[in-house]
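Milestone M4 deliverable, item 7.
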Amino acid sequence: IGIDYSLLQQHVDMGVALINKHSEFSQDIVQMVQEHHAYLDGSGYSTILGGKPVSDSGILLGLTDYVDELLAVGNAGGSFPVALGIRRVYQEAQKGKFPTRFVEAMIRVLGVYPVGTVVQLSTGEDAVVVKQNPEMSVRPHVKIFRTSTGEILKNPEVRNLGTHSELKYEVRITKVLDSVDPSINLREIFS
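Output delivered:
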């Protein structure tokens, strides 16, 4: 199914018109909606002069919308696994699309590997991220559910990748796995 991008771009003007019909919304809200598809590097589309957002709220809404579009199942470009989507947003910030400080704040909240991300460890084991590690965002707490030989564990083991006192080597995440793999039952793992 083809997408008519000119029609899609009209949603900003339509949203602004709808908001303007209701006097209880402030002009700050109108501005935020106008700016949410204008990026710092001048890309995107907007009804504002120059196409660049000027308010933090417009930038933040644009960042949120961009992340949602990357991660949404069924979007035009296909969805990204969360960790890869976060990496993509960080790369876009490095190129000037978003303020780095906003993206870094988002990463501090979500983590590099958000809760629910299915990963493979350097040991060959498969795990799911169950808790962030505030001191080391690339080393969250994980629940190991499959051994390196492919055996599903009946009692998955929780491991803090930020501490390795019980191991003689450092365990790290090497790959993000597809969470829609039918052999991975997240509901069962989290119960």
